[in-house]
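Schema walk-through. Below, the input block comes first and the output block second. Nothing else is stored per chain. Lengths vary across the set, and this one has 452 residues.
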Amino acid sequence: MSSVTDSVIFRNIFSTPAISSIWSDTQRTSYYLLFEASLASVQADIGIIPRQAADAILAFCHVTNIDFDELRIQTEKIGYPVLGVVKQIVQNVNNLQPGLGEWAHWGATTQDVTDTATILQLRDTLNLISEALDAITSDLRNLCQTHKATLMVARSNLQQAVPMTFGFKMARLLATFERHKQRLAEIKSRLLVLEFGGAAGTLATIKDGRGLECQAALAKKLGLSVPEIAWHTERDRIAEVGGFFALLTGTCAKFATDVKLMMQTEVGEVSEPFYPHRGSSSTMPQKRNPISSVYITAMAATVRQLSAALYDAMVEDHERATGPWEIEWIVLPQICTLTHAALLKTSELITGLEVHSGAMKKNLEITRGGVVSEAVMMGLAPKLGRQFAHDLVYELCRRSVQEDLPLLTLLCADDKVRESGLSKEELEGLCDPANYTGLSVEMVDRVLAATS
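--- output ---
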């Protein structure tokens, strides 16, 4: 095993069959052949190469015709797989008629084929990403709707802060994933662009001014946009999509981190989807580990590290680079496979998440009123002044902990609180967490309305 995505044991955890297929040798080589076949076809259409040659090239350009053992040998010798593919095309077409295969790869260079194949692989990847995002946002909408009024405590610096609702927490996540969907749509127009320029990108080998015509026809045939100019050593497109994957999996990891914390025995507010022995321990039978969340955070951290390499790959020399380009070959497949796996695990986590509203309510009572101290402070502020009210409630909260008494009891017994004129009923209202969720429900509804 050279990578967890190649492992028989781990590959369906850190990858998925669908994304692994896209980044396989077979699919990459298929896209090399698609480029060569499409190039020959459009060049025959506009009279650059003979129709007979194009037909013969098209007939050969199926991945089942490729000798992969020979391709491996040629790649190890040459350093790039494209020329090995072209040699097989030329040889086999020449066997039909001497010289006919020489029209293959006309005017193209190795990086044209490689970059365009990579773009096609990324297009397929983004289609899978889009499907996963749709599933995630759909299930998040359901969680938001179901739990928009489910009381829980918000946390700041891992300490109880103020009351909110679980729906509010999920609506923030939903809004973030919706922004990722917007980013995905924006990236596509910049990413899904043909590379076809020849040796230095100038299309010098296509005579009689037909280079741009050929380029446009090839882009149309492959379903890609026409480049405004060659981008052999301008790698912002690739770095941008890598950065997007880092953002996307970072959001997955933020959610997974919250799930891990909320699954702690002492908290117990949510649980990962259950099935027998999922996340079990070899020595502690009582444990139910947050295993999906663990995988998500690990994969997201790896994507962030690997994506940084794509920014290094941007620093390329002159018109054709000496090394940085190959960084993409190493990290892009891993970034894409890990990203898709992280998204699917996030989707499964959201779909089957067990929400323990009783534990959420119980946790709101731990501080015996401290969680609504801000509400009490703001209720007293118009009568006593905000800073004075803050210091007063601060001291009462401290006593509540030390004396193990409810905050309400101390409030009712305090002379300054009595002087404020607030009745016991008003103080009880201020100490009820259900009365201090702010606009949690309204904000959930706003997110739902914006994403419906």
